[in-house]
Design brief:
345 residues; 2 domains; Rossmann fold; eight-stranded mixed β-sheet; alpha/beta; three-stranded mixed β-sheet
């Protein structure tokens, strides 16, 4: 049977769409993920960069450059767990509206476009020691800011990223110390911490974890799989839930699950984080907690007078992929605090 040119096109078009609508080699097709003007701005203002982290991992960051920006101090976004750079592109574009010239978005090792670090189990969230995250962030600043060392940054960090940047402060070069910071739903204490904070229980679980790793079989405490919107724990936005699921599972940016070893390291690091949040931290910081938090135990009370806390009513853990109303409120609270001024009309 002979196929006409018109029918041939009709057969081939959906096949071509299938292949080209999805990422190739892990790179997202932003035209399909984001829409219209947003996609155009991302393509025209973003560049991709890699730097060598500790243990020679290749770590990724995005850099947005806005020629119209008047604020010479860069904005640095330290992402959280399973929270890769593209989830923050909208926030970067919002920063342009507030006058920022440069925005950096840093993928932690083991996620996004940074190297996975668990041999043979590349899609699992794992870090040998949380200090590896800290060393990576210090190396990021040395790499990204080697040509503008006089411009101290502003910081936005999410969840795990807040632990990392806070625990890195004491080792940071003076010119890299943030002017101000905003922590979005920081990981002060995981909801499961209460059980594992018992030293006896922790020691037993740690022993089991070490034995499993020695045999090359890391224990996975949470497997990532597609979830229905009504049962998700990160956002109240149906649209952004669908977008984030697309980027995780079709964009190759997601992981298969979180290892027990990562959880144990996070518990230790969050204890250090709470200690560093004491009176010795001398940087004005805004902490935004989520009213409908599903990941973090919000009972921790911040005693440092340099820290102010605001609760975002109706929000879940991932403020950066929340509904437009919630995200805009979070953006306004953050930048009004960082820049000490309301947005210009």
């Amino acid at each position: 049977m002979k196929i006409s040119k018109l029918n041939y096109f009709g057969v081939m078009y959906p096949i071509l769409c299938f292949f080209f609508a999805f990422p190739i080699n892990g790179e997202l097709n932003y035209i399909d993920v984001f829409k219209g003007e947003t996609s155009r701005k991302i393509v025209s203002n973003k560049t991709d960069h890699f730097y060598v982290g500790t243990n020679k991992t290749k770590n990724y960051y995005s850099k947005f450059t806005f020629n119209s920006g008047l604020i010479r101090n860069p904005l640095v976004i330290i992402t959280g767990l399973e929270d890769p750079a593209p989830f923050w592109f909208e926030t970067a574009l919002k920063a342009e509206e507030w006058g920022f010239r440069e925005v950096y978005i840093v993928d932690l090792r083991g996620q996004g476009q940074s190297d996975r670090v668990l041999n043979g189990q590349k899609k699992l969230i794992y870090v040998e020691k949380f200090k590896d995250y800290i060393s990576d962030v210090l190396l990021f600043f040395d790499s990204a800011f080697k040509d503008n060392t006089n411009e101290r940054p502003y910081i936005i960090s999410h969840s795990t990223g807040s632990i990392v940047i806070t625990n890195a402060l004491k080792k940071m070069r003076k010119e890299h110390i943030p002017l101000k910071m905003s922590f979005w739903t920081p990981l002060t204490r995981l909801k499961i911490n209460r059980i594992l904070e018992n030293k006896f229980v922790y020691a037993i679980v740690r022993f089991i974890d070490q034995v499993s790793l020695s045999f090359g079989y890391p224990i996975v405490v949470k497997k990532y799989k597609k979830v229905e919107f009504k049962s998700n724990k990160l956002t109240t936005s149906l649209e952004k839930h669908k977008t984030s699921e697309f980027m995780r599972f079709k964009g190759g940016l997601g992981s298969d699950g979180v290892t027990l070893h990562w959880v144990l390291e996070a518990i230790k690091a969050s204890a250090d984080f709470r200690e560093h949040l004491g009176s010795d931290m001398n940087i004005d910081t805004l902490v935004l907690t989520a009213g409908d938090e599903t990941v973090v135990d919000n009972s921790y009370e911040f005693s440092n007078k340099k820290i102010s806390v605001k609760n975002v009513i109706g929000a879940k853990h991932a403020l950066n992929i929340e509904t437009n109303d919630i995200l805009n409120s979070v953006i306004n609270l953050t930048f009004e605090f960082l820049l000490d001024k309301p947005k210009s009309p």
